[in-house]
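Q: My labmate handed me this sequence with no annotations at all. I'd like to see what the chain might look like in three dimensions before we decide whether it's worth expressing. Could you predict it?
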Amino acid sequence: MNDTLHIQERVIEVLRTVYDPEIPVNIYDLGLIYRIELNDDATELSVDMTLTAPNCPAADFILEDVRQKLETISGINKVDVQLVFEPEWNKDMMSEEAKVELGFL
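A: Here is what I predict for the chain of 105 residues:
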């Protein structure tokens, strides 16, 4: 497995440890991660994410949790987390597991 693929898998693994304090499902399975991009030598990581609501009271906590956890990944020297609201998040973006957990299925 090449380094980039290994690091991308690790990024997803780490993102699955971040939760909105009000929702018992991780942000990755909620569909809040829109883009994960590594530079050519896989040392710089850029992530676009959103929130379930623009006025989420836990926004700062969640963003800081994401950034801090991603910075612990071996080989990553720089992490850039961008908060975006386009496209607007909706429950159809959740994984099947998240929908089951939250009672949508």
